[in-house]
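Q: What does the assembled structure look like for these inputs?
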Amino acid sequence: MSDPTLDSPPRSPLPRDQSAENQAASAQNRAAIDRSCAGVCLAAFASALFWLALGSVLAILASAKFHLPYFLSDWGPLSFGRVRPAHLNTVIYGWSSLAAVGVFFWLFCRLTRRPMPMPSLGWATVILWNIGVALGCVAILGGGSRGIEWMEFPWWAAMPIFMALGLLGFWSVITFHGRREPHVYVSLWYLLGAAFWFPWLYAASNLLLHITPIRGVSQASINWWYGHNILGVWFTPVGLAAAYYLLPKVLGRPIHSYYLSILGFWTLAFFYNWAGAHHLIGGPLPAWLITLSTVASVMMIIPVTTVALNHHMTMKGHFYRLKTSPTLRFVVLGAMAYTLVSLQGSMMSIRTINQPLHFTHHTVGHAHLGMYGFFTLMMFGAMYYIVPRLTGRDWASSGLISLHFWTVILGLAMMVTTLTLGGIIQGMELNHAQRTLRSVMAEEGLIRGTLTFLGGLEERSGVIPFIEVVGSTIPWLTLRTVAGMVIVVGHLAFIALFWMNVRGLRPRRPGAAELGPSGMNEPPLGPQAMEMHGR
Amino acid sequence: MNRGSVIYLGLVVTFVAAWIGLVLAPARQLGDLPGAVDPVTGQTHPRRYTALELEGRAVYRAEGCIYCHSQQIRGGRFNADIERGWGPRRSHPIDYLRDNPVFLGTSRTGPDLINIGARQPSDSWHHLHLYDPRIVSPGSIMPPFGYLYELRPIGDQPSPDALTLRGGHAPPEGMEVVPTRRARALVAYLLSLDRTYDIPGFDGGR
Amino acid sequence: MFDGTGQLIVVKSPQPNARPAMDHPQPPESDQHDVNRMHSPIMREHSEPADGREPMPIWLIIVFGAMLLWGGWYLGQYSGHFRGDVLDERAADRAAYPRRDLDPDLEIDPLVLGRRVYTLHCMSCHQIDGMGLEAQYPPLAGSEWVHGSPRTLARIVLHGLHGPIEVAGEVYDDQMPGHGDQLTDLRIAAVLSFIRTAWGNDAPPVDPRLVREVRLEHAGRRASWTVTELREAEATEHPAAEQTTTPPAEPEPASP
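A:
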């Protein structure tokens, strides 16, 4: 596989690293970098896992209350209307964001080839962030929610998070300018984007909705500009930065195409910001605003396809490594979920398709495919790679890794399937006031009834009461609770692994923990096997 | 792309453009809407909330009603909202002039509430429904809000606002269930949700 | 592919006593000491990632160009001229939605209008099937009141009702609020006609003029009715003014 363009290679680190001396020097440099940010990153990961555990408990509670309305309903702080936003905010600002902060610092240092400057700024970021999430969580459970989705935290809880973000942005600019590697790798573009955009987005939205609220429905347009863009300018860039770094790192191959990387990054920067108002299709907002967001959302197909192509071509011929590398498994599945959820999102923004799906549990399924399938899996993958480098210890148990992987994948697949299917049925019933799936099936039989229902064009008389639509969602919501419990088992496994690693428990046999046929039960690995696994 | 300045410039330009388009432009276009004046009575819609209704709005917000109930009638091709009787016309930006924050909502696990005050103007119904939704709405999965009500011994004579609970819901002998101030405020707010007036010049999406 | 990485990939020959070195050949002896102090996970690592230089596929550019064209077309088609007051994306031309000066309700079949009014204002208590709720809200289906005097029905809808009322052999004691402020005479007549014909009920429709008369008769009244008051009001009426032949004193038996 020779490439003629290599005649004028980019300023890439790889050719210069070929000599053995450089190899050793760069390994020493990496060790110094990892040592410099180990404390901050481990603190971020540990607190993220705390919020993940709390968020999981809140999730199960909220989910169970859909089909058991009397379950723990006597006390305000545990009522559905408070537990549900508390779940969202702990997993978004607690788990996902703090994991992102940890990955951010580590990746940034690695990519600038620079031991972490000003670690106190990093510590302040992590601490302030945790204070903000803790305050906000207490506020929501105590009845102090702001009542704006994704922005429930009152200003005094949002303020520490904003300060943390400001510090993160400042630290990034300083570190970037002192970088010791002239070539700016694609991951670093995304990280810079996140460090630049998210503090801005956070400040602008909080200012216009909480501090000096603007009048009327424009609030909703800002609300969803924020709600959509926190994914676009914070989670997506950090998640993609991790994928762009880890795929070539684990495989030991360069990323497929620099040009695709550029196209993917700038089209994302150009289109993602404009999405958001398509969450308000059919609502009381000017048509142009919603059309604009719909177009931007559909145009997101361009960066998504580009990134997917770039990752796929990098992976091509090396998928067998999924058998053994935990990092690769989570990262590749996360990247696939990213492609899937983004294309789904583009479709969902088209008015005709949005009509039956809006206001249903389908949207919740979509959100979980994005924030869990893409981002959380990506963070798990990144942590599987990063944590052993921070502590200098390999994961203690490949059995627990396997348990973590399979429960999380199974639970996620179950949850997304039930919510998606249940949501489609719910939406088609909501939008055709005259019939429910059950009523059509009762008239026309199982198969023909389903077809008629999905066709959805025939006229009927009479209005089916809304309560029937509620009833048809209950089996799906019950299954969702089961799916959530399966996922929680995986979380417990991962938290145990992390705890063992930090506490100094080493694997019984030296070497990286790996999955599959050459796992821990096999005889000790030869170098050949080690090379294969490359974690 | 090895120059920081190029990256920074790109990041700023892309973000500012979207901010102008999605935040500034709609805020300018909708920021100075006048209310809808009724040609007959001269009354301006939507009317100002009373102090109690605003308190109820805060309860609605704190208890997370928005996670299951939308407050918007969709128009255009979305005719089921009107057919279900949730409102006579699609919602208009004017309907939300006095709302802060705006509770448009994104989920319809429960029905839309933008006109609940017109659809169900009985405060006793709302109190029963909040106390335990399944008293008046069998099959509902809404959580009960018993903690907004107070179980207390009957004084010299029964309170006028005590809930009329029958059967399995009836309080023990000598006790009565009365709404707290938060429950009364919430019901006052729900009863104020009536956006069935006409907006001059707006066809209502019919 | 980079020859550098290609080299890495083919390092597969077993080296019996070698440390697990992933991304570089065996380091020289002089480095052994330093490397030993490093974490084993770091030693296994490949070099930091690099960029490949594969060209962008031409089909991708064509597809993306086509998408951009579609985006421009869609935006133009559904922009509503970028006006703040155009909410329906299909109303690119405002003339397509002429303002109606007449009451649009007049164009609707009274029974369809009545069903709409019913689902909007009555259904949460009297339910979709008109059966009410046991021991809470009385049924309309088969009710002797619904089959009775339309003026009485108009009074109840206009001003509301409180106190005990017997319907189909059961006594109910709750409150019904008045709807006179919210509903036009046309809509009250439509919903009364609807409930008098729905669910097996069989009574003549109600004329909007009758509702208007009742409204004027009790102009200024705010209080809701009791059953006693309704009976008194009925007693003062001329039977000729009634549109129904059934005297209110002798309620019809419930329809099946």
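Residues 1-17, 517-535 of chain A have pLDDT under 50 and may be disordered.
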